Amino acid sequence: MNIFSKIAAGLKKTKDSMMGRLETLMNSFTKIDEEFFEELEELLITCDIGVETSLDICEKLRVKVKEKGITDPALIKNELKDIITEMLGEDKEIDISNKPAVILVIGVNGAGKTTTIGKLAARYKNEGKNVLVAAADTFRAAAIDQLQVWTERAGVDIIKHDEGSDPASVVFDAVTAAKARGTDVLICDTAGRLHNKKNLMDELKKISRIVHQQAENCSLETLLVLDATTGQNAVNQAKLFSEAAEITGIVLTKLDGTAKGGIIISIHRELGIPVKLVGVGEKIDDLQDFHAKDFADALFETETDFDYNYERLTDEENAEISVDEEIISDEITEEIASDEIIDENVPNITENIEDVIPETEENISDNQEAVIEDEISEAPKKKDHGKFEFLFKEITFGKKKKSEEDTENESNSEESE
User: Fold this and answer.
1) How far apart are CA 412 and CA 244, in angstroms?
2) Angle 76-88/51-68 helices, nearest 10 degrees?
3) How far, in Å, CA of 85 to CA of 291, rounded?
4) Biggest alpha carbon distance in the chain?
5) What is the per-residue pLDDT across 96-145, written as a single tens digit (0 to 9) for each?
6) Residue 380 neighbours by CB under 8 Å, 6+ apart
7) What's the order of all strands across the beta sheet hosting 249-253?
């Protein structure tokens, strides 16, 4: 399955919910008026795009409809797609250009931080990079053990302290070790925290300061992991976490399990924080880079647009396809030529058949035809009893057996007399 197919499959629930209702709305109106826009605003809000973002989308759509003179509601789908694509902005990938590139992963418990770290570590390891993981979530029970399982699966090293130790000291040691080992990527886990826990948010600020001090001139990313199933609550989390740390990107997990994928639009529009990664499954390679165009295409596609087989082809692949097409066309030409040769022989075969058939018919005598007709007329007509035929067979068999017994009794009585 290619990258676009994974995004499209992950957005299926969001697409089915949002696009299904949009189709119903467009079919319910014959013209675009204020009532239509009110219904559209309500639809977007209930799809977890957010109030402010939904109003902004409808306002931009009003301008486009007026400029282009659109009157048919069925024609607004492409305009909506363009507006959402533009609103999502340019794609931004994780910066790991200067090593050791430090990726600080934050978020609430249950959002998928540990899983995200494991998948990221495996990804960079497969790309040939030297990866190190810091287990700085020392508050949650078994968090270190869980992270160690993921690092072993990915085949990378881990820096850890005892449970309950200072998280900032773990990060400090991990940055120092990464510099000494020439590590390409250092991924730091942090304690899951609620945005209303002041002491944990202060701890996050401390970790962020240490990373900035120790990893000076290195690439630094602070990724906030959000659970897509929480809808607009994820946007509120992002607002409060951004006060404690300078968030450079969002990782939106569990996108395949919810119809609330529209929050991606709201996050980018309201916070200006780009979504850099999306989780579209549970497999280790199901953490994908986010592309705004792919997101919009998957959200607005119809069954016949892509059928989940969309691929970006390079010039070399296009050249290979053209060569294959030439080979296929040559094979088709040869088959057509062979068919023409066969067609030349077909009339002779037909003529022979026509010569044989009349002779066969003449061999059937009138007496034989009469016998056949008599047999057909005398044959008992079979009743079709459908799926209960077996019942009637048993009943018939029973009657037949009874009649045979009666006949035998009569013959015995006659002999005795």
Assistant:
1) 110
2) 130
3) 10
4) 127
5) 988 889 999 998 888 889 999 999 999 999 999 999 999 998 888 788 99
6) none
7) 157-159, 131-136, 185-190, 101-106, 220-227, 249-253, 275-279, 287-289
